[in-house]
Fold this sequence. Notes:
Blueprint: E1 6-11, H1 15-29, H2 33-53, E2 58-64, E3 68-75, H3 82-85, H4 101-108, E4 111-115, E5 121-128, H5 141-144
Helix pairs in contact: 1-2, 2-4
InterPro entries: Anti-sigma-factor_SerPK, HATPase_C_sf, HATPase_dom
Protein name: Anti-sigma regulatory factor (Ser/Thr protein kinase)
Organism: Nonomuraea roseoviolacea subsp. carminata
Amino acid sequence: MGDGEVLHCQITADLSMLRRRIEAFAAAAGLAAERLDDLVLAVNEAADNVLEHGAGSGRIVARADSSSVWVEIIDPAGTLSEGHLYRHGDGLPPAALRGYGLWMMRRLCDRVVLDHPDGHARLRLYMRYQPSTPSVPPRSRKAES
């Protein structure tokens, strides 16, 4: 897949189809393993929010370049605000049974940007092919005892 590749799809109740299309697009662009899974999960959460809290339909535009994949989730309702996006700050997850979607997106993706072109809410999820810093391997159970 070369620079400038773009995927367009509608947000409908068929989130499994949306996940398959995003996964295939991002994998063909070069995203792999856990980073690919994280992006698919984040896009699913964003699309589900559009269905449940937004206009009930919307669209996805995904782009790939030489270093990353951007996925735009566009909600015609335009009701998502910075206050929603950062309601729980950078700390612990919300103390609730629901409401983890935006919190998760911010932790799974390298960057999350919200704007409102033409009155629509546009949430942009950005994932580099490689993490910007090497991850620290988890401690073994033996080291904890």
